[in-house]
């Protein structure tokens, strides 16, 4: 069993460096990866559309080719991509986990989470999340012109980035994630994989392990599960193969 895990690419345009690097990386996985797990915010914005925006066609085509060559797909929805719909569930036969969930790897229970729900104190975000994922807003987004929804998404992304430094200062990733992961491990899982915080690290504990994926924006970090163990890696964008990062 060989599985790949990555998150937080925030893809915009196919010409962007991180977009080109992700396509190259995924092409290298063809025929050698049993499972690809995407843990949210792969797209800068994908909410509720049944059709593929032109900028995202290259990635969807690449995922479809992986699927046809035998790679199973799992997608944990993030805070920039949810209500994924039939493009993923039908065309790609992808298992979509709106709030995260468990999978098994060689008999080991692994919990997958984007990570945006790890902080119980961030009540403002939780209220916004409930609103954005409501059926009413989902219906409105589906009938709204793409130009309008993208304009709203770009504004939201700008505001999010503007406030991100303050959020990270107030709620450091490890401080938030440690009790969250411990609670999940206490439920009987042997490993927890998260995204969202853009900080890659791998911590082993007596009762399990936590793999934080970092991002695919400047770090190009991802995790591999192979030979019954996890490892973090960094993709070398200027070469044909990835280099180990730890």
Task: Detail the topology: elements first, then pairings.
Elements: E1 2-6, H1 17-28, E2 35-38, E3 46-47, H2 57-68, E4 72-76, E5 81-82, H3 86-91, E6 95-97, E7 101-105, E8 108-113, H4 123-132, H5 135-143, H6 146-170, H7 173-185, E9 191-194, E10 200-205, E11 208-213, E12 221-226, E13 229-234, E14 243-244
Parallel strand pairs: 1-2, 2-4, 3-5, 4-6, 8-9, 9-11
Antiparallel strand pairs: 1-12, 7-8, 10-11, 12-13, 13-14
Question: What tags apply to this protein structure?
Answer:
single chain, 246 residues, alpha/beta, Purple Acid Phosphatase, chain A, domain 2, seven-stranded mixed β-sheet, five-stranded mixed β-sheet, 7 helices, 14 strands, 35% helix, disordered C terminus
Task: Describe the 3D structure.
The chain has 246 residues and is of the alpha/beta class. The protein has one domain: Purple Acid Phosphatase, chain A, domain 2 (4-Layer Sandwich), CATH 3.60.21. The protein has helices spanning 17-28, 57-68, 86-91, 123-132, 135-143, 146-170, 173-185, and strands at residues 2-6, 35-38, 46-47, 72-76, 81-82, 95-97, 101-105, 108-113, 191-194, 200-205, 208-213, 221-226, 229-234, 243-244. The strands form 3 sheets. Strands 6-4-2-1-12-13-14 form a 7-stranded mixed beta sheet, with helices on one face. The longest helix is centred in the middle third of the chain and has 25 residues, at 146-170. The chain is globular, with a radius of gyration of 17 Å. Residues 240-246 have low confidence and may be disordered.
